[in-house]
């Protein structure tokens, strides 16, 4: 009689064990499910899938942005974000280095993750960010209860940032409008070399009344299609009630939103 010791069959029953079934081995763990869920959530923003992005948020979800006043309910966050999702890409945050912790029972978990703005490690023009959040399991799958996006700040640079925040409060609204007009005019002049138009968004102005620094993300256009984008850094001084640029540095991005129109 031949023996097959690696096959175990119960006497009188047609039940044999050849090891763990492949289907059982493929069942994802809760942590794997959460990682896939969060990766898809971030990807939805990158491709402007509005339904998928906000569908991943629980009805009671809270989104905490980087500004002190940015504590958004799901509805308020959705309303604010609609113009962004009207573009080819709302925003492109690529997560890495994520840690997920399951609460006892496995229905709630919390996580933290690193964030880079683009999907190439060397092109993090806004630095490395950190996202933290809480998710819970529902009948429809995992949903986000809270997400908190913050920019990482080295301890040895904290004093510099505190000083800049104090200085920024000194910028008069009228001066800020004039500074931005000068910055836009300068970008337009640079863009006009290629018969393009410009668009500056979300500029940050810091100053003390006579000196100002501007960080201005911009996109240039030609025939309604984007031809380039980047970050412009301006230094300005106020001379006889008029703002003048003393230095300008332009840092092009490696990747812009495809087919973005103006």
Give the helix/strand class.
alpha+beta
What's the pLDDT, averaged over the residues? 80
Helix fraction, binned, reads 25-40%
Could you tell me the radius of gyration in angstroms? 26 Å
What's the helix-strand series? EEHHHEEHEEEEHHEEEEE
Q: What about the largest sheet?
A: 6 strands, mixed
| CATH class annotation of the largest domain | Alpha Beta
Strand order of the main beta sheet, please? 4-3-8-7-6-5
Question: Termini separation (Å)?
Answer: 81 Å
CATH architecture of the largest domain: Roll
CATH topology of the largest domain: Nuclear Transport Factor 2, Chain: A
Find the count of extended strands (DSSP E, 2+ residues): 13
Unreliable segments (pLDDT under 50, ≥5 consecutive)? 1-20, 119-124
**β content, as a range?**
35-45%
User: What's the tally of helices?
Assistant: 6
Overall, the morphology is elongated
Give the domain tally: 2
List the helices and strands and how they pair.
Blueprint: E1 8-9, E2 16-17, H1 22-25, H2 30-46, H3 50-55, E3 57-64, E4 71-73, H4 74-85, E5 94-102, E6 108-116, E7 129-138, E8 141-151, H5 158-168, H6 173-191, E9 197-200, E10 204-207, E11 211-222, E12 225-239, E13 242-252
Describe the structure.
The protein has 262 residues and is of the alpha+beta class. The protein folds into 2 domains: 28-151, Nuclear Transport Factor 2, Chain: A; 156-252, Nuclear Transport Factor 2, Chain: A, CATH 3.10.450.50. It is 26% helix and 38% strand. It has helices at residues 22-25, 30-46, 50-55, 74-85, 158-168, 173-191; strands at 8-9, 16-17, 57-64, 71-73, 94-102, 108-116, 129-138, 141-151, 197-200, 204-207, 211-222, 225-239, 242-252. The strands form 3 sheets. The chain has a 6-stranded mixed beta sheet with strand order 4-3-8-7-6-5. Strands 9, 10, 11, 12 and 13 form a 5-stranded antiparallel beta sheet that branches. The longest helix has 19 residues, at 173-191. The protein is elongated and about 70 Å long.
């Amino acid at each position: 009689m031949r023996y097959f010791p690696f096959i175990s069959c119960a006497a009188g029953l047609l039940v044999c064990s050849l090891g763990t079934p492949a289907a059982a081995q493929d069942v994802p763990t809760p942590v794997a499910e959460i990682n896939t869920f969060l990766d898809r959530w971030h990807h939805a923003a990158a491709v402007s899938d509005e339904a998928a992005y906000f569908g991943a948020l629980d009805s009671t979800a809270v989104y905490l942005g980087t500004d002190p006043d940015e504590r958004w309910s799901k509805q308020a966050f959705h309303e604010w974000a609609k113009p962004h999702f009207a573009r080819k890409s709302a925003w492109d945050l690529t997560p890495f280095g994520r840690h997920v912790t399951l609460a006892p029972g496995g229905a709630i978990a919390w996580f933290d993750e690193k964030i880079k703005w683009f999907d190439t490690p060397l092109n993090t023009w806004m630095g490395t960010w950190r996202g933290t959040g809480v998710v819970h399991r529902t009948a429809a799958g995992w949903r986000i209860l809270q997400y908190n996006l913050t920019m990482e700040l080295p301890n040895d640079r904290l004093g510099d940032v505190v000083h800049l925040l104090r200085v920024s409060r000194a910028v008069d609204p009228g001066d800020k409008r004039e500074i931005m007009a000068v910055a836009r005019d300068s970008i337009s002049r640079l863009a006009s070399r290629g018969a393009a138009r410009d668009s500056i968004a979300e500029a940050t102005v810091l100053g003390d009344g006579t000196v100002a620094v501007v960080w201005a993300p911009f996109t240039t256009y030609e025939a309604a299609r984007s031809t380039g984008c980047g970050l412009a850094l301006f230094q300005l001084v106020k001379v006889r009630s008029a703002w003048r640029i003393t230095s300008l540095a332009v840092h092009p991005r490696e990747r812009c939103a495809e087919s973005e129109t103006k």
